[in-house]
Design goal:
Length: 435
């Protein structure tokens, strides 16, 4: 998607028009194949500017706030690439702060800094072309992931392509200086390489020791939920269940925004490992927190997993009713209710939890889940419930509603239609009528 932007940057700052190509033809080629794609990308990003309420609930920032924050983030990417340190380079940045004011010092300085660099790159395009090339290559390669598309704020792996231009410019600058002041430049390059090797050795040592790495990352990212859960998973993998549970209990106090998710995972571990008493009272306390809890994408899946294991009696310390209420409370949270995958998962968990004791509630939850996402496996479970409860007419009406769904893929459309026909035949056979 960004290839035309990177080619255009290279053309503007480093290349010249081939002598055998007429100026008018060259301009036409550049306009059609480079400028127009750039305009299309800008138009696409402009269309993504207004976040829906659901996106704001999940991400915790607006498009404008993301743009302000990214102005700061891009400088951090650059600084960490050129002068990295072990505690700043790591996998957990989910606790990165959101900047909400344009007059915030960091935002103001960062934005002005980029404006100055871009201006200098254009002004000195002829004299120092590598400056403009590095700046516009770096920013151009970040056009999608570091502007208004509502991704998470900070991920270091987004820099693989953007940093190519930066390091080409740095290498060119070092080479140019080496011609004039060889001893000083040589000493600086050797020192920088040795420092980089030391850092690489240090990073390799950390990453090569999972137990130490989890401690180190959590120490430098105490507010990161991912660092917290990673520490728990490492302790569990090492068989230190008690230590993992103690760590999660303490984390619930220090990370109140995600206390509900940590609590759910903790209760699941306690029950699955038989490492302590779990009961409905504990789940009820967690359920009371869910309507206002911060969004975490794997929370619905964790509730569904707990519900499945309770149904299969792998873990019977808590009731299905309490799990039903847990899913219901999560659905009361706008962040989860507005997220299609989360809503579908939670409704599926409610259907599973209520199928044994409250079949009509289960039926309603199945239907709601299928209206959110068309799932053939879930539809089969619902049809068997229709037949079990002799709700034949209701089943036929719902299958008619589901038949109206037409997958865009021709093969999937055929499979879905054939599946509906099979379920209609099963219901018709059960009450000797026509569905």
């Amino acid at each position: 998607m960004l290839l035309p932007v990177l080619i255009l940057t290279t053309e503007l700052f480093l290349l010249t028009r081939p002598g055998e190509v007429k100026r008018v033809h060259w301009r036409l080629w550049v306009t059609v194949f480079l400028v127009l794609p750039l305009v299309a990308i800008i138009a696409y990003l402009g269309a993504r500017w207004g976040y829906s309420e659901a996106v704001v609930y999940r991400r915790g920032f607006t498009a404008g706030e993301r743009m302000m924050t990214q102005a700061v983030v891009l400088w951090e990417y650059l600084f960490n690439a050129l002068l990295p340190s072990t505690h700043r380079v790591g996998p957990f940045h989910d606790n990165y702060p959101v900047y909400r004011s344009l007059v915030s010092f960091n935002v103001l300085v960062s934005t002005l800094g980029w404006a100055v660099l871009m201006s200098l790159g254009v002004l000195f395009r002829k004299k120092v072309p590598m400056l403009g090339f590095a700046v516009f290559w770096f920013l151009g390669a970040h056009m999608v992931e570091s502007t208004v598309v509502p991704l998470e704020l900070y991920f270091e792996h987004r820099n693989y392509v953007p940093l190519v231009g930066v390091f080409l410019a740095v290498s060119h600058g070092v080479y140019s200086l080496a011609i004039k002041v060889t001893p000083i430049v040589t000493f600086g390059v050797v020192a920088y390489i040795l420092l980089s090797l030391f850092l690489l050795l240090r990073l390799s040592t950390i990453w090569g020791n999972p137990s130490y790495a989890s401690d180190y990352w959590l120490e430098h990212n105490p507010d990161s939920l991912r660092a917290t859960m990673h520490q728990s998973e490492v302790l569990l993998a090492n068989g230190e269940v008690g230590a993992a549970l103690m760590h999660m209990d303490l984390s619930r106090l220090t990370n109140p925004d995600h206390s509900a998710y940590i609590g759910i995972f903790s209760e699941y571990v306690r029950c699955a490992a038989g490492a302590g008493r779990t009961n409905d009272e504990g789940l009820s306390r967690i359920a009371s927190q869910l309507p206002s809890a911060s969004f975490y994408p794997s929370l619905p899946s964790q509730i569904l997993l707990m519900t499945r294991e309770r149904v299969e009696r792998f873990c019977s310390s808590y009731s299905l009713d309490s799990l039903y209420e847990l899913s219901k409370s999560a659905l009361a949270n706008p962040a989860y209710h507005s997220h299609v995958e989360s809503r579908h998962t939670l409704l599926s968990a409610m259907a599973l939890a209520s199928r044994g004791g409250r079949p009509f509630d289960a039926m309603r939850s199945y239907e709601d889940a299928l209206r959110v996402r068309h799932n053939p496996r879930l539809l089969g479970q619902l049809v068997s419930l229709y037949i079990e409860l002799q709700e034949f007419e209701r089943g036929c009406r719902f299958l008619k509603e589901m038949r109206a769904f037409k997958p865009t893929n021709v093969y999937l459309r055929s499979v879905w239609s054939d599946g509906i026909s099979g379920y209609e035949a099963a219901i018709s056979e059960s009450f000797s009528g026509e569905c």
